[in-house]
Structures
1.
Amino acid sequence: MNYPCAVIQDLLPLYCDGVCSEESSRAIEEHLPQCPQCRACLEAMKKSEQTFPSAVEEEKKAASFRRLKKKLKQRQILMGAGCVALAALVLLVTSAALKNIRRTVEYEDNIQVTMEKSGLVSQLEGTVWNTCASVTLETREGNCLFFCFTDTVWDDLVTGDQTYSHYILCPADKGAGEIQ
């Protein structure tokens, strides 16, 4: 069947891109050998295709960019997770270090020592201590109790000034009544 040149020329872009039906391709291929004007039109389209990338090439480039974007996003997520993990590790190491740095608790006006039923009790204001070392010495005036509190830098950071700690320095059954 012989189609008019206008119909063939309308189909030529689809033919160049390889997306027209078999029937349309056959009609164009039968028409081209007989029509120099349509052949020239097809040649011009092929030359312009070389100048302008085809839709397939553009799709390949777009797919390549999508893959690159996906890789970069994954890399950003990994970097973010790595930074969070590193920050968490630094916090853990720092808190562990602060919990292991021991120091003597200074007390002057912030301690009260009283005799109660349970024994000799101290009330320490503004700190919490981890260990208490005490020594009872016999002197001419009687027994004297010397004690030393230690805490950590971490305790000092997390303990408020309104904290009061009560501790038994010497239980009643261990001779607290004999200490002066």
2.
Amino acid sequence: MQELNVDAIMEDLSWIKEFVEPATEIEVSLEKGKSPTGIEYPVVTVRITGTTDENLGHMIGVQGQHLFSLQHILNLLLNKKYTSDEDDAVRLRVNLDIGDYRYAKSSAVERVALSRADDARILGDEIELEPMSSYDRMIVHSVLSKFDDIRTESRGEGPQRRVVIIPTAEEDLGTVVPEHEVETDELEDEAE
């Protein structure tokens, strides 16, 4: 197992240059991530940019499928080289972005989530989003988790899995007292 550093990773990724035009740049950064249970792990971010994004389209693929496949391969290769096979070994994570596709896609998913959350609030009904990847669903859940007046859940199976945005009842928020909890004296006072 070798020591993890940016220069070594750049050398490991040099084979990618064979598949792209010479003006393509590969940037690598190394950061620390933290799981919900508090375990720290290394995060390798690989960013591939070119003179024009259309030249990188074949690496992104339809709806990012090539990008996600390449990210999976990079995860396997780098984990094999830089982590041990022990069950309790901390695995590194690789985030790959090609031609800022992920950034643009994340921004678009966030905008849709916020807009559809407004629809759920106004209509007072559940709003079902289109089926999306687990990564996109995670973005929706994360973006909308900061609001108390809605909640999200995933429904469906496999490629049909989608996020449902559910407005939270005012009673659940504690802003309205349900009628059955209002004392009868208060109701009589209001009637007069």
3.
Amino acid sequence: MAAPATAAEVIRLWESGVKDETSEFQRRLRDLCGELARGDYGKIDSLFAMTIDAGAPAVLQELAEAFASMAVQIEAREYRLGEMLAELKEANRRLEDANRTVTNENDTLRSQVQRLTIEIDQTRKEREVSAIVETDYFRTLQERAQAMRQRQRHGETTEAASS
């Protein structure tokens, strides 16, 4: 038996088979479909068993088969979605771990760059001071300063001797 292709076909099949609403088969089918609608797939086998129930009208057997097939497809889709969700959660956990690792590494690198910047600045300062100190102009200034100090000391010594 082929499963009905559309919802309209399912309704047509149901309405054509529902002559006596008190029939036990129809009540069981309605109850099982209600359980499926609530997400309870535990009795799918009972629904499939109804598809071969000799005492049931063929149209209701087809309807039971259609609902059972839909339930299996929904259950399989929910299972796949659950698996995908678990995989996504695991991937998210790994990404969060990687993010923490990268953040820690960035902090470490930032600290190292700061230290290197300070070292580079110190080295540059020493090089610049050395370049200034080694010029002829600076040597001349040093010599003048030394001569001025000597004159000042010599003048203090002369004043002390004359007093």
